[in-house]
Amino acid sequence: MFEMERKPLNFTVRDRSGFTLIELLVVIAIVAILVALLLPAVQQARERARTVQCQNNLKQIGLALASYESTHLCFPPSFVRQEDGNPPPPPGGSALQFRVHWSGFHMLLPDLGQQPLYRQYDFRKTWLSSLTDLSDHSMWPLNAKAISTLICPSASHPTMSLGSPSLWMQGAPTDYSFSHGADIIRALPGPEAACPGGLLHYWQQTPHETRGAFGYNSTCRPQDINDGTSSTFALGEKSGGRLTYGGPNSSYSTLPVEYPWAMAAVVYLSPAGSTWVVDALAVTRDIQLPDCPVSPAGAGVPFPMNPRPLQMGVTSNERQLYSFQSDHTGGAQFLFADGNVRFLSQNIDQGIFESLSTIDGHEQVASQQY
């Protein structure tokens, strides 16, 4: 047999030290395109997660309301308040500082998993301090407690600490506000200051057809919601840190606006000079006209959702401070009185929006309309 001659195989090996410049540029371009394609998807996924968390927060508040109602047979008031100066503040104190003015969130603390915090409050005092002792600061640090359930993860707060430990107003923000329906009071100087009743415009004094589920000293029960609990929202988003406000005149500072859960100052410049603080309430229409009468249903100025501009200059128009608003794109989330949470478009018909905010307007609103 013959043996075949084996010839060595010759391979030519080309030494490579790395990418050429053109190849590197191509790789960079491909990576840039992939990042450009993936980044919006990642951001959308994160926002969806934040939206779900916000929805869960409102559901927890809804469960807290249901628990409170089962015990007290009514929902808590949005704010507990007394007539200004009755009883009078101690010497050196202001009527605002020494007004009994607890918020509905104070009342809900045990049902929001904040029983230890709730037990530290002395509800015989005021929301800030003692009714008689100027040196009593015991409530201040309690009001500054940040509660995660009350914070929307999409909201961007400049700070979680409002006010100053050395001053009488301290607080922590919330992004959820009680619905006062289609009515509002105003406290900054202006023609409303001379309105009959002024700041005494309590829930019971509000016309029933424009009344919301909450109000000053309100005692709303589920059976009072004649429009139906599934067709009436109780709370909605009002995200802090979204607006800046220049005040009613040029003597004030232009600062971010926050809505403390434990404060009830209507509209007030934080003593620390860092923020404007506003009540955690929102409305869909202002029925208090400049000449002060309580107007019939349908009168007044609409308060749309997510108003613009976000940068409010010096103006006496406080409308945006009391509108429902959120950092979610295209609308805001609302807790309905039946415990369901729904996202409402900011393009919702204003009449339907107002109808959903009132408890006894007898409007016919089909679910497919919102």
What do these coordinates show?
The protein has 370 residues and is an alpha+beta fold. The chain has one domain. It has 5 helices and 15 strands. It has a 5-stranded mixed β-sheet with strand order 11-5-6-14-15, with helices on one face. It is globular.
What is the compact description of this entry?
With 370 residues, the chain is α+β, with helices and mostly antiparallel strands. It has five helices and 15 strands.
Salient structural properties:
four-stranded mixed beta sheet; alpha+beta; five-stranded mixed beta sheet
Rg result: 28 Å
Structurally, how many domains make up the residues? 1
**Alpha-beta classification:** alpha+beta
How helix-rich are the residues, as a percent range?
10-25%
| Shape label | globular
Helical element count? 5
User: What share of the residues does DSSP label as strand, in percent?
Assistant: 5-15%
What distance lies between the first and last C-alpha atoms, to the nearest angstrom?
A: 94 Å
Q: Give the SSE string.
A: HEEHHHEEEEEEEEEEEEEH
Number of strands: 15
Low-confidence stretches: 187-193, 196-200
Strand order in space, largest sheet:
11-5-6-14-15
Q: Biggest sheet, in brief?
A: 5 strands, mixed
